[in-house]
């Protein structure tokens, strides 16, 4: 890990909670949540006909998830334990610039993904994973290359989460770090095994609600303690901290400035890394495929912009509390400062929580770390299981795989990856690698496939040779630059030197941008002129999907007089769908550019270039805006899914359980199981019944 501080040593802090509390949270709560989700899955099958024994439901939730739940799931997908712990860690290291750049390195790529998601919806609506897109366009060699890159992305992302979460759980409860590493994925494995992507959406919602409520609690509690009292007093405390230990590379050595050389380097590193983590993470594509077409762009845009407040507000408040109060007797490490090991293991947040809220703060930090880790682990697990079932088993072992066989292979993938990720994280721990090291070096291995994947979806002339060679050459370039600069600046290649900021920045930038050069050169030699219509010739879905997958969400708003409604009153015309999706694509492109310019250029860079040091009033405004934004994010994440169909489905479930209403979708599912008849029978009335059932059922969320 980079030696960001002059301090060193290991933690000798007595855990504020007992081991029993750690095991209760990690094991008992994890299993309780798992069984609740299993019960919910069973109830939804009974009352709405959502059958997780069907592959389309297990992997893509029948592609009908609405905007509210999509936005909540997007927030949750990026709500890693790393975001909670890492934003406080960089705030402690660099000052107010750290949490801001952490947030700015997350939101733009989430919003940009809306463009990729809607492009996939338009060009290949039956896909389940991004790798299917690669295989159809370029063939099996490119498919294997990207499969390896995606799996590397998932493995290191899980290791990053588990290392940070296990270190925090151990620090606050005394639970053995290896026990926490292996037990964290247990509950995730159970509910993902049973419920598939829908269970992931629902648990994402539940976990995100709890995390944001606790984060908002910390944002208030920090200023209600006698030690702080107000934002103005916190400003004075942070100023005093800079006098005691000024920050090298910051304007005037203060924590209260955006002019921070280390922070801007971290911003470049973090932004590139996160583009890799999003674009090469198949779970983002799965959630985009799961959303109804009209929900992809607003869901990802709202989720991305709302997410910005979490690392910004929480990281700013908690790192400022740690800096301002670490010389107080009730700070866990008093009378010394936190060691390099403690900082890079992500202990800034829990130590600050203990300082302002005692054992309650320790329990709260333990709970949100557990929730954040398991929530994002579920997305990673379902992503890897989808790769193993659709891209390995179905493609290379059994082309004619049935629903049952694909679900069985998905179950194997869930269990295998959960166990593998725990074992891999344990190996990293024993060779001295922690949260900080993985946070910095992630981009070196996750970035090579970014632009080749983007070109695959958006550039018709991108050639097969470029798709195969450019990510391989990019990865080799990134690794060479990373290790070479580590040797140059540190004198050797070791865990310590490869975790320094500069080698990771150089390596990540090389991995990210060199494939652009390789792709353009190779494509220029022999360009491809790909016909996007080829995508739709491939049969990917195992079931007949409701009309064209691009129309389901609009049906409820049509009238018989609509010129785009066909005779059976069911769907709009294909030309209208194409125009509608192109319009969403333009909106997504506009929001992508606006979000990047706003979060990365217009807002922070003038403050960096002007060498501005925060005054008291400006700091107060900075914190107030961040906290208000955080509370707004909480309201969006909790209430948007309920208002956008959630209450409707709760009512439907209640009516189904009390026997007042049995949805047509549930009846059709039972009929399929009992009589083997298709829900898409020639009878017009049965078709319309099924459509109505699906509108009130799975489309309700």
UniProtKB/TrEMBL annotation:
Protein name: Urea active transporter
Biased composition range(s): Basic and acidic residues: 551-560, 691-701
Native source species: Penicillium argentinense
Family annotation (Pfam families): SSF
CDD domains: SLC5sbd_DUR3 (cd11476)
Matches recorded under PROSITE patterns: NA_SOLUT_SYMP_3 (PS50283)
Gene Ontology MF terms in the entry: spermidine transmembrane transporter activity; urea transmembrane transporter activity
Membrane-topology descriptor: Multi-pass membrane protein
Main subcellular localisation: membrane
Family to which this protein belongs: Belongs to the sodium:solute symporter (SSF) (TC 2.A.21) family.
Keyword presence, Transport: yes
Transmembrane segments: 20-44, 65-94, 100-120, 141-169, 175-194, 263-286, 298-325, 366-390, 411-431, 437-459, 466-485, 505-525, 587-606, 618-643
Subcellular location: Membrane
Biased composition (Polar residues): 675-688
Region (Disordered): 551-572, 665-701
Keywords: Membrane, Transmembrane, Transmembrane helix, Transport
InterPro entries to which the protein is assigned, alphabetical: DUR (IPR031155), Na/Glc_symporter_sf (IPR038377), Na/solute_symporter (IPR001734)
């Amino acid at each position: 890990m980079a030696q960001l501080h002059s301090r060193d040593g290991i933690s000798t802090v007595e855990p504020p909670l007992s081991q029993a509390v750690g095991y209760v949270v990690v094991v008992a709560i994890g299993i309780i949540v798992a069984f609740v989700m299993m019960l919910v899955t069973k109830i939804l099958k009974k009352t709405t006909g959502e059958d997780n024994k069907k592959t389309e439901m297990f992997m893509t939730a029948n592609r009908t998830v609405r905007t509210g739940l999509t936005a909540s799931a997007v927030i949750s997908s990026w709500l890693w334990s790393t975001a909670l712990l890492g934003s406080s860690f960089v705030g402690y290291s660099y000052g107010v610039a750290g949490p801001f750049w952490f947030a700015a390195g997350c939101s733009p790529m989430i919003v940009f993904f809306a463009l990729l998601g809607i492009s996939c919806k338009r060009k290949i609506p039956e896909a389940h994973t991004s790798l299917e897109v690669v295989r159809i366009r370029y063939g099996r060699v490119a498919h294997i290359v990207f499969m390896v890159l995606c799996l590397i992305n998932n493995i290191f992302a899980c290791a990053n989460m588990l290392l940070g979460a296990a270190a925090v759980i151990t620090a606050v409860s005394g639970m053995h770090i290896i026990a926490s590493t292996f037990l964290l994925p247990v509950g995730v494995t159970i509910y993902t095994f049973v419920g598939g992507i829908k269970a992931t959406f629902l648990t994402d919602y539940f976990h995100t609600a709890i995390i944001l409520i606790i984060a908002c609690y910390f944002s208030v509690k920090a200023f209600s303690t006698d030690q702080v009292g107000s934002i103005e007093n916190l400003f004075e405390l942070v100023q005093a901290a800079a006098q005691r230990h000024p920050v090298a590379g910051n304007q005037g050595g203060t924590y209260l400035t955006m002019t921070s050389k280390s922070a801007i380097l971290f911003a470049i590193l973090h932004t590139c890394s996160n583009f890799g983590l999003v674009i090469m993470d198949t779970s983002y594509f799965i959630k985009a495929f799961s959303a109804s077409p009209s929900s992809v762009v607003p869901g990802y845009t709202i989720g991305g912009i709302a997410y910005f407040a979490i690392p910004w507000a929480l990281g700013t408040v908690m790192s400022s509390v740690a800096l301002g109060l670490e010389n107080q007797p009730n700070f866990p490490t008093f009378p010394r400062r936190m060691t390099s090991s403690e900082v890079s293991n992500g202990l800034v947040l829990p130590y600050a929580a203990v300082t302002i809220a005692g054992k309650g703060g320790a329990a709260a930090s333990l709970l949100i770390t557990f929730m954040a880790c398991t929530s994002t682990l579920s997305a990673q697990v379902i992503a890897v299981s989808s790769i193993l079932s659709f891209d390995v088993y179905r493609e290379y072992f059994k082309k004619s795989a049935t629903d049952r066989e694909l679900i069985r292979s998905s179950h194997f993938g869930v269990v295998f990856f959960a166990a593998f990720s725990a074992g891999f994280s344990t190996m990293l721990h024993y060779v001295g690698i922690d949260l900080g090291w993985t946070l910095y070096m992630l981009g070196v291995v996750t970035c090579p496939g970014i632009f080749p994947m983007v070109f695959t979806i958006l550039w018709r002339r991108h050639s097969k040779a470029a798709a195969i060679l450019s990510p391989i050459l990019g990865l080799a370039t990134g690794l060479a630059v990373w290790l070479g600069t580590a040797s140059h600046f540190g004198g050797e290649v070791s865990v310590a030197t490869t975790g320094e900021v500069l080698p990771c920045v150089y390596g990540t930038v090389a991995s990210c941008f060199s494939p652009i050069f390789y792709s353009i050169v190779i494509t220029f030699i022999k360009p491809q002129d790909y016909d996007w219509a080829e995508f739709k010739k491939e049969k990917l879905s195992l079931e007949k999907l409701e009309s064209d997958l691009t129309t389901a969400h609009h049906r409820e708003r049509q009238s018989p007089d609509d010129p785009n409604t066909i005779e059976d009153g069911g769907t709009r015309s294909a030309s209208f769908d194409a125009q509608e999706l192109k319009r969403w694509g333009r909106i997504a492109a506009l929001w992508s550019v606006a979000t990047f310019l706003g979060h990365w250029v217009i807002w922070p860079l003038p403050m960096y270039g002007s060498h501005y040091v925060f005054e008291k009033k400006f700091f107060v405004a900075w914190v107030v805006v961040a906290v208000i934004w955080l509370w707004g994010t909480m309201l969006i994440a909790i209430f948007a899914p309920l208002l956008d169909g959630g209450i409707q489905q709760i009512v439907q479930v209640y009516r189904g359980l009390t026997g007042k209403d049995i949805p047509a979708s549930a009846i059709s599912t039972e009929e399929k199981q009992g009589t083997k008849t298709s829900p898409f029978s020639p009878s017009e009335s049965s078709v319309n019944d099924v459509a109505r059932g699906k509108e009130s059922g799975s489309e309700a969320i």
